[in-house]
Amino acid sequence: MMDRSRRRERVGKLTFLVILLGLVITGADLFSSLRGWEICPYEGCRLSLDSPYSHLLGIPLSALGLGFFFVALLLVAAPRRWMLYWSSLGLGSALYFLYLQRWVLGKMCIVCVAVEVLVFTLFLSSFTRVSLWCVLSLIVLAFLGVHTVYTWTPEQKEACLGNREMDMLRKFYTTKGGEREAVFFFSLDCPACSEALPLVKRWASREKVRVVLREVMVHDEEQEALYLLSLLKGGMDPWEALRRVEEGKRAPRVSEVSREERRVLLRLVAFNGILLRSMGLDGVPVLIVAEEGKVEARQGLEGIKRLVSPPSSLGWEGGYQGAGAEDLGSPLGGVCTPSGCGD
Q: How far from the centroid of its chain's Cα atoms is residue 142's Cα?
């Protein structure tokens, strides 16, 4: 009886310690993010913080984590089964966030993993004699619930990002042109994108197409992205700004990029990558053209060449020929992915 009492006392102390650590970590993370500070300097932390997945229903995940541990603190004096039910919901959510980091963002956030480990420890420390099916059901329910919130259509996800990112996209990253519109996914560290850029520019000018430029950070090119934004803020034409960055030229005078603009830029770039992966793609360049209810797309330098080349150069008859014959997921030559760039 004494051993059981001591065991309960130790478990209670462990539970309280886990909750206290959770409150400290999530509170510090929330405070630093609101002040624009970085408590974690690693790429995975920055990518997670600047991605659309850093908020759930418009609420920062650190605030939700703080609320989770605060409720857990209130449940310390309640029967253990209530702590188990609550931690089961937390575990299901934590598993989904692990999935996002590993398979969607492709980078692990140390702060996030630390919180997820604490949630798992809280779940183990609160385990008691209840229906196993009930516990598993709560875990699955939380996992699927978070998944449902995050898996809206791209248009809905764009709206959830807020107006700052979309305003930046419309104001700086949309070229002049006609009523037709295309989307060009590119990376500043991609030789194939550099070759495709002048082809797309000439095609857009010839066909009177407005091109929305969506930058994707295939590799670590944050400084180049900030330099591009500084040129665009200075009023430079997007095509010329891209050419300047590609050639490594320095503008004589460019406006500074504020910390807030940097955060908005990184969120937008992270979302561009997520949007690209939602189509089953992980490489650039990609050109997507929408016209009269028809969507034509190409991934890879050679595929884009076929899409933007005038009919006369390839011997086509009957005007513009679409690109629907090949599969978008099968790139034609010259693609850059996180693992490298190929011919």
A: 21
Compute the distance between CA of residue 50 and CA of residue 108 in angstroms, rounded to an integer. Answer: 13
Q: Can you tell me which residue has the tokens 């004699």?
A: 129
Closest of 228, 204, 198 to residue 216, by C-alpha: 228
Give percent of the chain with pLDDT exceeding 70.
82
Q: φ, ψ for residue 309 (rounded to 5)?
A: -70, 140
* Token code pair at residue 40: 């974690």
Give the model confidence (pLDDT) of 263-319 as tens digits: 778 778 877 887 787 677 778 899 988 766 677 888 888 889 888 876 534 333 333
User: The tokens of 88 are what?
Assistant: 């089961």
d(CA 297, CA 329): 10
Taking the mean position of all CA atoms in its chain, how far away is CA 260?
17
Q: Do 45 and 38 contact (CB within 8 A), yes or no?
A: yes
Burial class (CB in 10 A: 0-12, 13-18, 19+), 265: buried
Domain limits, the chain: 2-151, 160-342
Give residue 81's identity as a one-letter amino acid code: R
Dig out the tokens for 278 from the structure.
């939602």
pLDDT tens digits, one per residue of 157-204: 554 555 666 777 777 778 887 778 899 999 888 888 988 999 999 999
Site of tokens 């309280």: 16
- Percent helix, strand and coil across the chain, each to the nearest 5: 60, 10, 30
Which of 106, 125, 156, 41 is closest to 337 using CA atoms? Answer: 106
CATH dotted code for 2-151: 1.20.1440.130
Residues present in the chain in total: 343
Q: Is residue 38 within 8 Å of residue 262, measured between CB atoms?
A: no
SS3 of 335, please?
strand
Fold of 160-342: Glutaredoxin (3.40.30)
* CA triple 331-105-23, angle to 5 deg: 175
- Asked whether 91 and 123 are in contact (CB, 8 A), the reply is yes
| Predicted TM-score (pTM) of this structure | 0.58
Same fold, 2-151 and 160-342: no
